[in-house]
TrEMBL record:
GO terms for biological process: tRNA threonylcarbamoyladenosine modification. The gene is gcp. Its EC number is 2.3.1.234. The lineage of its organism: Bacteria, Bacillati, Bacillota, Clostridia, Lachnospirales. This is tRNA N6-adenosine threonylcarbamoyltransferase. Substrate binds at residues 142-146, 175, 188, 192, 282.
Amino acid sequence: MIGQASEDVLILAIESSCDETAAAVVKNGRTVLSNVISSQIATHTVYGGVVPEIASREHIKAVNYVIERALAEAQVALEDITAIGVTYGPGLVGALLVGVAEAKAIAYAAGKPLIGVHHIEGHVSANFIENQDLEPPFVCLIVSGGHTHLVIVKDYGEFEIIGRTRDDAAGEAFDKVARSVGLGYPGGPKIDKTAKEGNPHAIQFPRGRVEGAPYDFSFSGLKSAVLNHINHARMTGEEIHVPDLVASFQNSVVESLVSRAILAAHEFGYKKLAIAGGVASNSALRKAVAEACEKDGLQFYYPSPIFCTDNAAMIGTAAYYEYLKGNISGWDLNAIPNLKLGER
């Protein structure tokens, strides 16, 4: 375990990996003084998904504003900041470059250390913000639009990946199914809301398994099964009850995620299980994990929805622990769109 700093550490953090431009000020890793997010959802909804070039342009427009507002809301000046943290991967390369260039410019001009942060490390670190008692090691299920990982958090910023998706990420499957039934973008929140009106056992969809890899995930077969069900219903003139369909789809995803996470906690001998990522705000997933943890005697940790979405507070928390370890980035820090978890 790493030690504590001798005096307060204030991190100014920047996040721009996809379609949220965000800045935050975080004190000593766990106290959020400000957390400002400028979302592009309305811009991209017209296209049914994120358009990378448009996302980059929107980041350029918003990045100075969110930083200025984050400092103002935290009631600190740039000279009070200890270090600058920024997401440098994974994500959309153009979007990442906006944040990285901004962070490098501010750090250089202000004479502050620069700390590059892995986006997924940030999502895991979101659990530390509201759970002051949570410390590694623990098992974490990471579920987002581009990533589905099952990891052991061995220490701050140190991960052992024990499971991952072999094809679609869970959030990606949510978006595709939502689009196929006309719910639109973003798919995750829309399916979560619509599924509350449906029967999760109305349709028996498959639970994808990977032979010889009990902790890995596969959602492409499930996605195909949903699309085949829709196509068959349309060909035969059968009415599609969308709430039942999406509730059944969501139930399949949730059962796949929860069963593997609980299995990993038991087989690796951990009593703490956390969830992270955009899909971690899904109400059915939260409820299912909470019930499974209570049944099996595990402690369950999760971030509030605002810290599940892409935000800079989680990046500030991750940057704080990297700062304590002395992991300072050079001026050659660059955006790495396919950065693997655990790499620096």
